[in-house]
Amino acid sequence: MDDLRGVRVLLGVSGGIAAYKAALLARLLVGAGAEVDPVLTAGARRFLGAATLEGITGRHVREDVWDGIAQDTHVALGRAADVAIVYPATAHTLARLAHGLADDLLTTTLLAATCPLIVCPAMHTEMWEHPATQANVEVLRGRGVTVLGPAVGPLMGGDAGPGRVVEPDEAHAAVRAAATSTRSDGPLAGRHVVVTAGGTREAIDPVRFLGNRSSGRMGFALAAVAAGRGARVTLIAAPSELPTPEGVRRVDVVSARDMHAAVHEVLDEADVVVKAAAVADFRPASAAASKLKKADGTPAIELVANPDILAELGAQRGSDDTPVLVGFAAETDDVEANGRAKLAAKGADVLVVNDVASSDAGFEVETNRVVILERDGARTDVPLASKADVAARILDVVGHRLTALDAHHGGSSG
Ligand code: CTP
After folding, report:
1. How is the chain split into domains, by residue range?
2. 351 C-beta closer than 6 A to ligand 1
3. Torsion-angle region of residue 53: left (phi > 0), alpha (psi -120 to 50) or beta?
4. What is the tens place of the pLDDT at every residue in 95-124?
5. Could you tell me which CATH number the domain at 186-409 has?
6. CA of 260 to the centre of ligand 1 (A)
7. Average pLDDT, stretch 167-175?
């Protein structure tokens, strides 16, 4: 995948044990076609040899601010960067960035850079939760810096908690999203993308509902990546704890019928509808007005069918094939055959088939392994990847379809 061809990435590495992962990130970025300029802090050089990064990126690793003074190294590097990422970012480096310090090559370069900046914090939980660090992070966020992570998990010295640097593939996806957002000419720029996410809840009584295990993560990742690519995004979300991605308009809904109404509200101006939500197929025929009591005996709950939102959109769509319709299928066996049948039955353009039988993909996990099926028979396999990465691959396919539709209709509908 050459999704970063022509993109120049400034890779800042600060001094934490996770610095070794910067080598993996550098390899992913280079593999995607990026030109990577690594800049190491003094601490990072103690954890990771500059020779490793030099070998991977094929570029001279600048040692300090006095290296290449005649070429104004820091200004040149800062200006040339399309995206900058600090991976990992220590508490000290976050503090230096928040306060605008310029005491080494990394911080001077970042002061000279005007491109999007991503920081990936890595430190012990206590340091991350310290009010000083949290205040610094708020300052950076307020300045438009993307703070990615930290992830939760084992830390150095046998501890565990929030503080791990995010995995290299997640950082790679963030670099890609940032690079695409600065390229305002992509096929999603200016389009209205409607994403539904999460699992609907169907009321039994005022306190109980029928629900499902969908967390909403896939839909939220799609909304975030689409917004990063310059789309106007409406995220129609069934109950979810997840924060609203930056630049996304969120409409909260509860039941399948609420979601149905919310989709129809925005349908007229939608260029793309992505149905990542797990919509309940059935709901209780009537919700009890007051809480069902045990003393009244075991209730028999009669179910009635909910509207199939995607199938309805597929059937109602006009001959111009807009909006582009993307559905999801959660399958446990015969993944491709069931997926193809569902793609046809729903009248969608794209169906993302999710193998929910495997434990590392599907519901309630950070990663997904999917197959993207298209109406004309195309198939794209996405191996195990973060949901942000999977979202990027799905939106690549959507982008191609938008471009093809434009060509077919003889111009952009903008
Ligand atoms: N979908 C929908 N409305 C419904 C049910 C599903 O819009 N009432 C959408 C989902 O958002 C998803 C796609 O249809 O994009 C497929 O959902 P899935 O649950 O896999 O399929 P079902 O149609 O429910 O089929 P089945 O449960 O029989 O496999």
Report:
1. 8-180, 186-409
2. no
3. alpha
4. 999 999 999 999 999 999 988 999 999 999
5. 3.40.50.10300
6. 13
7. 94
